[in-house]
Design a protein that fits this description.
18 strands, ConA-like_dom_sf, Jelly Rolls, about 200 residues, mainly beta, eight-stranded antiparallel β-sheet, DUF1349 domain-containing protein
Length: about 200
């Protein structure tokens, strides 16, 4: 992967402010509001646009990485990264706790949301890095745990002519008290390989 530049937490602006935000050394501790989520229409019939995303402009081509500790087990608790153009054009990728296990996946929203996931029970209690690389009309999403190799999560379409902001996010659709420890937020050049 290309050389990444660590971003200060102060570089971003919250889409929806969390319940609490605390800097702990280099880490950022974020407490999510109960009921916070990001989703549009598909299957569930609702629109939620109040996930806590800390975003700054991301050039295209360009890449963003977010690292966090996977230390939660509440239904639909989630954290990762977001690329957002507007309320109807965005991508979130990371780990969500669902059906009794951590699931690595992505939601791509172009008017309506979709969702792809894969169980990663061995990631519980470990450090996760999610990476999204945007070039042309494609976003390549990869993730890894600790220092293991990145694995491909998703190759998704995003309109090439829209400007996006990107950065870490979390939300807690079903419960209060989710606290996510974000370890790192970095940006840099887009990947040279799609997968």
């Amino acid at each position: 992967m290309s050389e990444m530049q660590v971003q200060p937490w102060s570089a971003g602006t919250w889409t929806t402010p969390p319940v609490a935000v605390t800097e702990d050394g280099p880490d950022l501790l974020v407490t999510a509001a109960q009921g916070s989520d990001a989703w549009r229409h598909t299957s569930y019939g609702f629109v939620h646009d109040d996930a806590h995303a800390l975003l700054a402009p991301l050039p295209s081509p360009g890449a963003v990485e977010v690292t966090f500790d996977l230390g939660w087990d509440g239904q639909f608790d989630q954290a990762g990264l977001v690329l957002r153009a507007d309320a109807e054009t965005w991508l979130k990728a990371g780990v969500e706790f669902s059906d009794g296990s951590p699931q690595v996946g992505a939601v791509v929203t172009l008017g309506r949301s979709d969702w792809s996931v894969a169980p990663v029970p061995g990631w519980a209690g470990r450090r996760v890095t999610v990476r999204a690389s945007r070039a042309g009309d494609a976003v390549t999403v990869r993730a890894r745990v600790d220092d293991e190799p990145f694995r491909l999560v998703r190759l998704a379409y995003l309109p090439p002519d829209v400007a996006v902001q990107a950065g870490p996010y979390c939300c807690a659709p079903t419960r209060p008290g989710l606290v996510v420890r974000f370890r790192r937020w970095a940006t840099g050049p887009a990947d040279t390989a799609l997968h």
